[in-house]
């Protein structure tokens, strides 16, 4: 899953910005941004802030997409029934907060 990377690629392309321009402005290596956009690397939380400011979008939205990617990466090779059970338990625990 590459929810955040696909979204960042969409933002960049919809603004007709080159990868190297983003890299130069954010002082992040072009290869790193390419890996994020292609789903080979997950954004860090500090990178979320940089991209949100650069594209003038909500950091909350990017953080949510990033969390989706992190959860998927942790569950993708587990049995599906165990994933659903774990997510249900996590949801119940989160309701208690």
Q: What class do helices, strands and sheet pairing give?
A: mainly alpha
Please state the oligomeric state of the protein chains shown. single chain
Order of helices and strands: HHHHHH
Strand content: under 5%
Helix content: over 70%
Shape annotation = elongated
Intertermini distance: 28 Å
Q: Which spans of ≥5 residues are poorly predicted at pLDDT below 50?
A: none
Beta strands, count: 0
Count of helical stretches? 6
Radius of gyration: 15 Å
Average of per-residue pLDDT values: 95
For the sheet with most strands, the description reads: none
Description:
The structure is a single chain. It is elongated and about 45 Å long. 15% of the residues are buried. The protein has helices at 3-14, 19-26, 30-38, 45-55, 59-75, 80-95. It is mainly α and 97 residues long.
Topology:
Elements: H1 3-14, H2 19-26, H3 30-38, H4 45-55, H5 59-75, H6 80-95
Helix pairs in contact: 1-3, 4-5
Give a quick rundown of the structure.
By secondary structure, the chain is mainly α. 75% of the residues lie in helices and 0% in strands. It has six helices and no strands.
Could you name the key traits of this structure?
97 residues; 0% strand; 75% helix; mainly alpha
């Amino acid at each position: 899953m590459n929810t955040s990377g696909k979204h960042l690629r969409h933002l960049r392309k919809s603004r007709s910005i080159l990868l190297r321009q983003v890299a130069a402005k954010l002082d992040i290596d072009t290869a790193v941004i390419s890996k994020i956009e292609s789903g080979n690397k997950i954004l860090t939380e500090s990178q979320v802030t940089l991209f949100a400011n650069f594209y003038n979008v909500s950091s909350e939205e990017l953080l949510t997409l990033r969390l989706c990617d992190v959860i998927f990466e942790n569950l993708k090779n587990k049995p599906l029934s165990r994933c659903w059970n774990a997510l249900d338990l996590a949801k119940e625990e989160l309701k208690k907060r």
